[in-house]
Amino acid sequence: MPSESYHTRGGAPGSSPAGLDTTVGDHDALRPYLGVYFRCANRYVKTFRSVDGSGYVARCPVCAKPVRFRVGPGGTAQRFFEVSCR
Ligand SMILES: [Zn+2]
Fold it and tell me: Which of helix, strand or coil describes residue 48?
């Protein structure tokens, strides 16, 4: 595991903060969403699937870092994730 520090905000587009890259299963055609708990903000965020259906992006309410979740076959059925930007 690389031990880089993630103190830069808003890095290159498409880069995932804190090395998060999660694939979630394609489930629930009706209002699909994920619950994401940001430990750094102590806040729970509900995020809906992007309009193109390719995934979800949750944004930290405090530091505004995006956390991406891809939708794909074989992805986890998990609907709740706990992340931290720090
Ligand atoms: Zn944060």
Answer: strand
How close is the Cα of 74 to the center of ligand 1, in Å?
28
Strand partners, 37: 44, 82
* Other Cβ atoms within 10 Å of 67 Cβ, number: 24
**Distance (Å) from CA 56 to ligand 1 centroid:** 17
What's the predicted TM-score (pTM) here?
0.64
* Biggest distance spanned by C-alpha atoms of the chain: 40
Ligand 1 centroid–CA 39 distance in Å is 7
CA–CA distance, 71 with 78 (Å, rounded to integer):
12
pLDDT in tens, 11-51: 444 444 455 678 877 655 566 889 999 999 999 999 998 88
Separation of 66 CA from ligand 1 center, angstroms?
A: 9
